[in-house]
Amino acid sequence: xxxCGHHHDHRKKLYHKIGAALVALILLVLLIILLVFLxxxxxxxxxxxxDATVYAFNVSAPNFLTTTLQVxxxxxxxxxxxxxxxxxxxxxxxxxxxQITLPTTLPPTYQGHKDVNVWSPFVYxxxxxxxxxxxxxxxxxxxxxxxxxxxxxxxxxxxKVGTWVSGRxxxxxxxxxxxxxxxxxxxxxxxxxxGSGVKFQLVQSCLxxx
Length: 210
Known about the structure:
Elements: H1 3-40, E1 46-60, E2 64-76, E3 83-95, E4 98-99, E5 104-106, E6 109-111, E7 116-119, E8 122-129, H2 132-144, E9 146-161, E10 164-165, E11 169-182, E12 185-186, E13 192-194, E14 197-205, E15 207-209
Antiparallel strand pairs: 1-2, 1-14, 2-7, 2-8, 3-4, 3-5, 3-6, 3-9, 9-10, 9-11, 11-12, 11-15, 13-14
């Protein structure tokens, strides 16, 4: 073997060693991040539906539902060392499993340790077609005097530990809201008259899944 060939082999081995060391270092850093993440184990945010103001909630022939609500939601980050990035987050309302409003997108937000965020979005649905059985069920609920509307939050969150930020996780929140009726009208006796609407103080815990 020539001196040149020997030098080339030596360089090759050196590059392999440097490459292996870099790979080992990267794996070690990733392992440390994973261990820190598992030790801290982020707890999912806690959501509360504080109130809901009803401006419109009525069925028109044959089976169209018009809904206008303003809801107040609070979210608390219960973690001591983990921050939360709320990326794209949509709020909308459903009735008996059917979406009855368009989604309203909340602004992207970072939530620090133990911080609380409050949002008050409007959600609208103008003459949304519903299945005939849902229109009938709504009529029955109005006669009973209570209609259950579910306020949903659907979005993506990321966890922040120090300078490290995780990938996106799916956030799904379900908040039950009871609207009180007198006959076929929203009953201000069950809430507080606010301009052309009726506000219901709920302070209702929500089911959160991440």
